[in-house]
Design brief:
The protein has a 7-stranded mixed sheet. It has a 3-stranded mixed sheet with strand order 3-2-4, with no helix packed on it. About 40% of the residues are buried. Helix 2 (about 70-90) runs antiparallel to helix 4 (about 165-180). Strand 6 and strand 7 form a beta hairpin. The chain has one domain (about 1-185): BirA Bifunctional Protein, domain 2. By secondary structure, it is α+β, with helices and mostly antiparallel strands. It is about 25% helix and about 30% strand. The chain starts with a helix and ends with a strand.
Length: about 190
C-alpha cells in the first residue's frame, strides 16, 4: 500500500483498488485505539479508528487513490456510500454511521472504515463483513463498540452471500466511489 501511494505521489503510477480477504485473521489498532485496548497480537497501523478484526469471510477494500477532493470528511462519506451500495445490492437497508466510520443495517455494523491520508492519497479503506465468524470480534471492542453489534451480509440478508457475490457488488459500486479520481484507477 505504501509503495503504491509513493508511486502515485511521484506520478509513476495510477490509483489502485485492492480487494482482499485477510487469512489468517489479524487484529489491527488504528491511531484512536486507547492504550488499554492494545495488547499482544494486536498490530498498530497508521489508519484512523480503533482496534478491529480482519479475517476470512470479510472483504477488505483498500482504495489506494488520490482523493477526488481535498476533503477527508467527504471521502469518509463516499466510503460509507460505497458500503451502503454494496449492502443495497443484497436488498439491505443500510445507513451510515454518525461519525463517518461505518455502515449499519438495522442497528448492526456490517462495515468498518479506517483511513490514513498521505499527500492527499488514501491508504486503508473499508472492511465489509460478508460471512464471518463473529467470534473474532468478541476478543476486542471492535471500533469501540459492543461486539454484539457486529453482523455480516449473510446474516442480515438471511442467506449465504458468497465472497464472489460481494466482490461483484463492490466492483459495481467502485465507479461512484472513484469518480472523479485523477489519472484513473485499476482494480
Amino acid at each position: 500500500m505504501l509503495g503504491i501511494a509513493e508511486q502515485i505521489r511521484k506520478g509513476t503510477a495510477q490509483g489502485t483498488v485492492l480487494l482482499l480477504e485477510h487469512d489468517p485473521a489479524v487484529f489491527t489498532a488504528g491511531r484512536a485505539t486507547p492504550a488499554a485496548e492494545l495488547g499482544p497480537g494486536i498490530v498498530p497501523v497508521e489508519r484512523g479508528g480503533k482496534v478491529t478484526w480482519h479475517g476470512p469471510g470479510q472483504l477488505v477494500v483498500y482504495p489506494v487513490v488520490p482523493l477526488p477532493r481535498r476533503d477527508v470528511r467527504a471521502w469518509l462519506r463516499a466510503l460509507e456510500e460505497f458500503g451502503m451500495a454494496v449492502c443495497g445490492a443484497f436488498g439491505l437497508p443500510a445507513e451510515p454511521s454518525v461519525d463517518g466510520t461505518g455502515v449499519f443495517v438495522r442497528g448492526r455494523k456490517l462495515a468498518s472504515i479506517g483511513v490514513a491520508i498521505r499527500h492527499w492519497i488514501n491508504l486503508h479503506g473499508i472492511a465489509i463483513n460478508v460471512a464471518v465468524d463473529l467470534q473474532g470480534f468478541h476478543a476486542i471492542r471492535p471500533c469501540g463498540l459492543d461486539p454484539q453489534r457486529m453482523s455480516d451480509l449473510s446474516r442480515e440478508a438471511g442467506r449465504s452471500v458468497s465472497m464472489a457475490e460481494a466482490i461483484a457488488a463492490a466492483r459495481a459500486a467502485l465507479p461512484a466511489l472513484l469518480s472523479p479520481v485523477p489519472g484513473g484507477v485499476r482494480a
